[in-house]
Amino acid sequence: MENVLVTGATGFIGTELVHQLSAMGIVPRVLVRRPHRAALLAAVDVEPIQGDLLVPSSLERAVDGVDTVFHLGGRASFESYRRLAPTMVDGTTSLARAAAAAGVGHFVHASSLFVHGAESDPIDGTTPPRPQLSYGRAKLEAEENVADICSNTQMTLACLRLPHVFGPQSILFQQIRSGIAIFPGRMVNRCGQLHVEDAARLLIAVGAQRWQGRSAVADSNSVTWREFFDLLHELYPYFRLISFPTQLALMGAAVIEPLLSRKTRPTLYTKDTVVGFNLDLPVAPDLIWSEIGESPRYPTIYESLPAVLDGYVHYRWRHPLDDRRSA
Q1: Is the pLDDT of residue 249 over 90?
Q2: pLDDT of residue 264
Q3: Were both Cys, which of 184, 204, 206, 278 would link to 274 (CB 3.0–4.6 Å)?
Q4: pLDDT cut 70: percent of the chain above it
């Protein structure tokens, strides 16, 4: 694995992936749709390629000479299928076609745990996908399209169905830093969790080892959202958690979503966001990890949450008498 392409390289998981590849001595090629976003990668050595998942000719340039594709690009929001499909389904399919035609050996697709629906038992290799969100439906359709392409070519495929991935720069922790976090539900459902460093490590490992298959993945212990936030508040008591009853949150989303749908920018104020945060999505421990001979650096939230808080400490000295902030 020497010549790699990363799509979604300026996104939350993508930037971590690029930094880890760079630390390994790999100079990744990165597909950049909005040039000003490339500044997020200024600290690492990359090969930027101007392109867009919606422009097939740009994808042909991007995959030329590449042996491994890490595909994280697409519209990352819980919106209607109509809004998600152009990048998530059509764009992924175009990229896979271009990659196969260019002789790419391995295609690593960052899919989503939301290809599954609510499950009382931990999700494992025997759990059939049954998406309840448009986001999950689009991800599953993209998986199927890429699998069809790979079945007729020499390109191999790894689809990692990622859970809730979090880190210092994630949307959740941006809320935490602001002093208020909002959760639309009772927080009694279990959900797979994964620190962003481990998500990137796993993507790289399946790329380097040419692991093939489709699987959910998470850390070693799926917890309820209540357990997640209780520990977070114990470690960092400087924010207020506001939770709304699920039905009230759904009614609010029903009012807000049509208003925001007129805008082109992605939004998380949707019915599917509320439904997604209330699905039971526990994941069986050790999926994929044991197959590739690795283990999570942060196996549970008791290791990952303290690491996240360490990661967003601002090392800017200020005299205590001048510091008026409470947190």
Answers
A1: no
A2: 61
A3: 184
A4: 92
Class of residue 25 by CB neighbours under 10 A (exposed 0-12, middle 13-18, buried 19+): exposed
Contact partners, residue 324, CB within 8 Å, separation at least 6 = none
What are residue 209's phi and psi, to 5 degrees? -95, 0
CA–CA distance, 89 with 74 (Å, rounded to integer): 9
Question: Which pLDDT does position 218 carry in this prediction?
Answer: 97
14 pLDDT exceeds 90? Answer: yes
Rounded alpha-carbon distances, angstroms, from residue 199 to 17, 71, 161, 168, 271: 8, 13, 10, 14, 27
- Closest-CA residue to 114 (of 281, 315, 310, 251): 281
| Pairing verdict, β 213-216 and 156-162 | parallel
Q: Which residues pair with 31 in a beta bridge?
A: 49
Residue 159: closest CA among 170, 171, 147, 177: 147
CA angle 270, 96, 53 (to 5 degrees): 50
Q: Is 116 helix (H, G, I), strand (E, B) or coil?
A: coil
User: What is the average pLDDT across 202-219?
Assistant: 97
Contacts of 263 (CB under 8 A, 6+ apart): none
Residue 164 φ/ψ, nearest 5 degrees: -70, 110
pLDDT surpasses 70 at 161? yes
- Angle in degrees, CA 191, 193, 198, rounded to 5: 160
Spatial distance between the Cα atoms of 152 and 62, rounded to a whole number of angstroms: 22
Alpha-carbon distance of 117 to 280, in angstroms, equals 8
pLDDT value for 110: 98
